[in-house]
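sry for the spam today, last one i promise. struct tokens for design, 363 residues
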């Protein structure tokens, strides 16, 4: 399918203007736009501006409050519990991770939970916020709407529940793990649907719990809760350790949902239990490295470890061994120069949003 290449700064400005038209403050609109476009820049289109319509509809339908502000409900020198008040997930996540970072700088550790929030985009954006300080490790995770079937189940009971950890290095690029605890996130199915392609076998099961490649059928089943869903990391059953991905997802749900006071598992949806809002939860952490080991020694050792991994013998036919985050950094550098590629269907969606909101489309 043909792609349209756009300038990332123009794309951010357009996206921010859309949010501002819907009643979001310029500060929060800019934060949300940056996180969405950063996803596209890092080669993760499943969580980029292709999702803009989701947020627009969420605000229009009253599920996301455009001018809501997060507030601290409980706080200690190293921890905080935040109520996002049903705001957009990105400003709430930015507020929460920033607070965790500031606490870690003062006490060595900072851990923050957020409840009454919404989808916050890529988990890696928030863990990478800690990298700006130079001496912190960042942690970010969130629960999400139930799209994943537990091992041996055929019902969607848990979310794709991503985990991200970002660690500074010296000469090497930072180590940035940003992964769903499912085989793939939902956005990957949307990408395949726009391309009109079947998904790979092993990504999902149908309403009977049988592995399926029928993209439209899987998406429809998920949307209408007809049964089936995405498989946990590792795939179906226990042979390839699908139960471990299942366990990781539940762990994220405990820290992001149960600990924060947000909803969890199958309850993360609008009007569940008579509550209007979705109530997604997040968990953020920051660790001050020099509270444990000299910073220079840590960064030097990180370089050595990553170089050792990359210099190991390559499998036959392979040209390079990558470190987590490396491909995304390469994409970011490429797209900053050449522009961000958007699928035609995404561009059509943006143009429609522009018409509905009165924002000029000049990308």
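last one done:
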């Amino acid at each position: 399918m043909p792609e349209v290449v756009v300038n990332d700064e123009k794309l951010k400005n357009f996206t921010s203007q859309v949010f501002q038209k819907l009643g979001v403050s310029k500060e929060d609109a800019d934060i949300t736009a940056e996180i969405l476009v950063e996803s596209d820049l890092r080669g993760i289109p499943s969580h980029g501006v292709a999702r803009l319509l989701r947020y627009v509809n969420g605000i229009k339908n009253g599920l996301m409050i455009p001018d809501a502000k997060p507030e601290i409900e409980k706080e200690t020198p190293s921890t905080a519990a935040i109520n996002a008040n049903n705001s957009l997930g990105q400003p709430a996540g930015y507020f929460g991770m920033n607070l965790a970072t500031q606490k870690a700088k003062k006490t060595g550790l900072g851990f923050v939970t957020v409840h009454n929030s919404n989808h916050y985009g890529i988990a890696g954006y928030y863990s990478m916020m800690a990298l700006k300080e130079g001496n912190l490790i960042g942690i970010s995770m969130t629960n999400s709407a139930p799209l994943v079937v537990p091992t041996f189940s055929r019902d969607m009971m848990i979310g794709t529940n991503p985990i991200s950890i970002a660690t500074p290095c010296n000469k090497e690029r930072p180590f940035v793990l940003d992964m769903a605890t499912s085989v793939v996130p939902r956005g990957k199915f949307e990408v395949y649907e726009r391309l009109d392609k079947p998904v790979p076998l092993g990504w999902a099961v149908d309403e009977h719990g049988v592995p399926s490649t029928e993209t439209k059928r899987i998406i429809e089943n998920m949307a209408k809760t007809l049964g089936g869903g995405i498989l946990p990391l590792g795939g179906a059953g226990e042979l390839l350790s699908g139960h471990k991905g299942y366990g990781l997802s539940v762990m994220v749900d405990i820290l992001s949902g149960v600990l924060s006071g947000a909803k969890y598992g199958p309850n993360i949806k609008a009007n569940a239990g008579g509550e209007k809002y979705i109530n997604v939860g997040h968990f953020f952490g920051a660790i001050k490295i020099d509270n444990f080991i000299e910073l220079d020694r840590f960064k030097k050792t990180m370089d050595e470890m990553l170089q050792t991994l990359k210099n190991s013998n390559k499998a036959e036919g392979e040209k390079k061994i990558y470190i987590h985050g490396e491909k995304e950094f390469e994409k970011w550098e490429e797209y900053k120069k050449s522009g961000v590629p958007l699928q035609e269907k995404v561009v059509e969606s943006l143009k429609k949003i522009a018409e509905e909101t009165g924002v000029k489309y000049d990308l």
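The domain at 3-293+345-357 is CATH 3.30.1370.60 (Ribosomal Protein S8; Chain: A, domain 1). ok im logging off now
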